[in-house]
Specification:
Number of domains: 3
CATH class of the largest domain: Mainly Alpha
CATH superfamily of the largest domain: lambda repressor-like DNA-binding domains
Helix content: 55-70%
Distance between the termini: 27 Å
CATH architecture of the largest domain: Orthogonal Bundle
């Protein structure tokens, strides 16, 4: 999708409706800075507000994603193309999030070891034991927070695939948290077939990641 073209289209349709950037932003519950970013092609509207945006601009989502008003003859063709593009963008975003999860884990673990090492050195230099305990406690606390945040990323990015029926879904956080796991593969109950299995993480809704 051409973000610059879409941005110009949004600006054109906003002006046709007699709206300022501030008025459009207020109607959508966002900042005028976000609208400015759309219109300059620096970002795209979030999927959660696309329908409301299109309603205000009196266009369809298909028009918005193409950056122009689409004729009925081309409607189905462009809609399918846009849906595929959105799926592709979501998959890439999920891959980036899962890579971020790994980085967070490595950094938080390194910080924990650093706090333990610093505490040990301080203790050898004659500092009281509570200093060592405090530093180690800080290290463990940040590690725990980072792990919980990383788990949230894993839960929401992509899908888990049932080994029994192939169903792909996003489970609740609690189910992921309490499930036995080996890396990103978790032993959970499929909401579709109701069977327990080791379910792999995949970002692709059509087929399992190799």
């Amino acid at each position: 999708m051409d973000q610059v073209k879409i941005g110009r289209f949004i600006a054109e349709k906003r002006r046709e409706q007699g709206l300022t950037q501030m008025q459009l932003a207020e109607a959508l519950g966002i900042t005028d800075r976000a609208v400015s970013k759309w219109e300059t092609g620096r970002s795209l509207p979030d999927a959660s507000i696309m329908l409301d945006l299109c309603k205000l601009l009196k266009i369809t989502v298909n028009d918005l994603l193409n950056g122009e008003v689409i004729s009925m003859e081309r409607y189905n063709e462009t809609m399918e193309k846009n849906l595929l593009e959105m799926v592709k963008q979501k998959e890439e975003k999920d891959r980036q999030l899962l890579r971020m999860e790994v980085v967070i884990g490595i950094v938080s673990l390194a910080f924990l070891f650093a706090m333990i090492a610093v505490g040990a050195v301080m203790k050898k230099l004659g500092q009281p034991t509570w200093v060592f305990i405090l530093l180690v406690g800080i290290g463990f606390l940040q590690f725990l927070v980072c792990m919980l945040f990383g788990l949230r990323i894993e839960q929401t990015a992509g899908y888990y695939e049932c080994a029994k029926c192939g169903n792909k879904y996003v489970p609740e956080y609690g189910r992921v948290f309490f499930a036995m796991h080996m890396g990103r593969t978790r032993y959970m109950k499929c909401p579709k077939c109701g069977k327990m299995s080791w379910q792999k993480k995949t970002v692709n809704i059509e087929k399992t990641e190799a």
